[in-house]
């Protein structure tokens, strides 16, 4: 759905929403979350690396997961902020991660992307494959002009996913994110970290799928969050 209005002869794009769809690749299905995903989602969100690099509650509880599936994830689409996908294996239907778009600007046709991979699924290239499918859909079918990724300075695996997609490093936001570091007693402490900003434009994506195929597929890097 798209709303337009005119000011002094200029057509301006107002808040819109992405369609409620699923996206398929050779190995994966990107679809809306449902309640059957809750147990696997809780397990994924309580992984140490996910705790370290995301702002999700910790420990991540049944209540948190149900709230995400029933309210938060659907609202990101219906309110026009973006869209959230559960990423599942095509053959097994097992949850391997999630990808989402948020902070969407409908006037400039730009949005920010984020991804998480379950610990058992790392090293298979699922984050790269799902993000490539999402970017292709966004640029080709939705007419968007820019995707932005922000990766913590020490999150090298996430940065490798951005590089494989063809993203261009555009700069550093110093001291811009609060991450978490595990303490000696097994707890967690907040730490500040720089963010690397990556940009992806439609032309940056040209030939990426072919290059990945020539390089042996998606799983070169041990990608996670």
From TrEMBL:
<dbReference type="InterPro" id="IPR016181">
    <property type="entry name" value="Acyl_CoA_acyltransferase"/>
</dbReference>
<dbReference type="InterPro" id="IPR000182">
    <property type="entry name" value="GNAT_dom"/>
</dbReference>
<feature type="domain" description="N-acetyltransferase">
    <location>
        <begin position="28"/>
        <end position="185"/>
    </location>
</feature>
<protein>
    <submittedName>
        <fullName>GNAT family N-acetyltransferase</fullName>
    </submittedName>
</protein>
<dbReference type="InterPro" id="IPR051908">
    <property type="entry name" value="Ribosomal_N-acetyltransferase"/>
</dbReference>
<dbReference type="Pfam" id="PF13302">
    <property type="entry name" value="Acetyltransf_3"/>
</dbReference>
